[in-house]
Automatic annotation (TrEMBL):
Superkingdom of origin organism: Bacteria
Protein name as annotated: Uncharacterized protein
Length: 109
C-alpha cells in the first residue's frame, strides 16, 4: 500500500472514530485529498507522456528549456527537488553531458 492509500485509509478510519459533529470536517478532508490526488495524477500522466516523448515539455526552446519546464511542472505537482535527489543528480549529469556535446560540436578552439 502506498503513502496516498495509507493517508486515505487513516482519514476514513478517523471519520468512523470521531464524534458525529466532526464528520463534516473529515468529509471536507476527504474531498480535498481526492482533489489533490486527481491533480497529482494529472501531472503524473504528463510525466509518463514525457518519458515516452521528451518534447512534451518542450516549447520550442530546446532540451535545456524542456528540462526547466519539467522541473517547474514537478514543483506545481508539489514535488520538491529535495524529494528527487537521485533523479536530480541524473538530470544534472545529463544536462552537463548535453552542454559538453554542444561545446564539442559548436565551439571552435
Amino acid at each position: 500500500m502506498g503513502q496516498a492509500e495509507r493517508t486515505g485509509a487513516r482519514i476514513a478510519s478517523a471519520r468512523e472514530r470521531i464524534h458525529p459533529d466532526y464528520r463534516a470536517m473529515i468529509d471536507d478532508w476527504q474531498e480535498r485529498f481526492a482533489a489533490d490526488q486527481s491533480f497529482r495524477r494529472l501531472h503524473l500522466e504528463r510525466f509518463e507522456r514525457g518519458a515516452a516523448d521528451p518534447w512534451v515539455f518542450d516549447d520550442g526552446s530546446g532540451p535545456l528549456e524542456a528540462c526547466a519546464a519539467a522541473i517547474v511542472a514537478a514543483s506545481r505537482a508539489r514535488i520538491l527537488p529535495a524529494d528527487l535527489g537521485p533523479e536530480g543528480k541524473s538530470l544534472m549529469a545529463r544536462i552537463a553531458a548535453y552542454a559538453n556535446g554542444l561545446r564539442r560540436r559548436l565551439l571552435s578552439r
